[in-house]
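User: Here's a chain of 289 residues. Predict its fold as C-alpha cells.
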Amino acid sequence: MPRPSTTRPPMAPPRSFVWTRRIVLTLLTVFAVTPVYVMVSSSLKPLQDVTGAFRWIPARITISPYVDMWRTVPLARYFLNSVIVCTSAAALSVLIATFAAYAVSRFRFRGRRVFTIVVLSTQMFPGILFLLPLFLIFVSIGNATGIALFGSRAGLVITYLTFSLPFSIWMLTGYFDSIPRGLDEAALVDGAGPVRALFRVVIPAAFPGIVTVAIYAFMTAWSEVLFASVMTNDTTRTLAVGLRDYSTQTDVYWNQIMAASLVVSVPVVAGFLLMQRFLVTGLTAGAVK
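Assistant: Prediction complete.
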C-alpha cells in the first residue's frame, strides 16, 4: 500500500503581499508609460497646442509633424549616418572581441592576466576623460598622414570601439569559458586548426553571447551624444545629435521633436524585442560563469 506523501504544498502568499505587489507594479507601469504617452500625443498635435496649456487628450490630431520633420532638418541623412556608424561599430566589436576572447579563453600566454586586468580597468573611468585625448590623436593623425578621422564616420566608429570592446571581450571570454574544451579538441583531432575550430565549433555554440555583444555595441553607439557632438560635422552628424536641430534661436518645434524621437526609437525597440531571448541568454551565461 503506497504511503501518503509527507511533503507540504507551497503556502500561498498573504493577500496583503499580493495587493501590495499589484499596486507597486501598477504604479511602476504608469510611471514608465506616461512619458511615452506624452511623446505620442505631443507628436500628433499642432505646435500651438503643444506650447500652450497641456491637455492629456489632444483637441486636434494631425500627422503633419511626421511629414514636416523630414524637411525641417535632414533627418534621413542623420538616420543613414547613425545606421552606418552603429552597424560598423557593432560588426567590428563582434569581430575583434571574438578573436580576443577566444585567445584569452583557450590559450595561456605571457601577459594574459595583465591584459584581462587592463581590459576591465578601462570600464572604471568615465567616458569624458577620453574625449580630449581622442580629439588630439585624430587631429595629429590627420595632420601627419592626411587621413581625416576627426569629423568622419570612421573616426566615430573607432571612438565607439573604445567603449564597447572592453565589455565585449570580457563577456565573450566568460561565455567561451563555459563551452567545453572537448569540442575544440574533437575538432583538432579531425584535422581542424584553431581558427577553423573557432568558426566551425565555438562560434555556433556561443551564438547567444555574440548576439548579446552585437546588441550592446549597437545600442551604445546609437544613443551616444557627447562624442558624436564633438567628433562629427554637418555631413557626418548622427541622429542623437541631429535631433537638437529642431531647436532654433527663435522656435522650438516640440511636436516634430516628439515625432522624430518616436520614429528613431522604433528600430531599436523592435530589434531589442526580436533579440531579447538571445540577450537574456548571453548575459545570464556570462554572469553565471
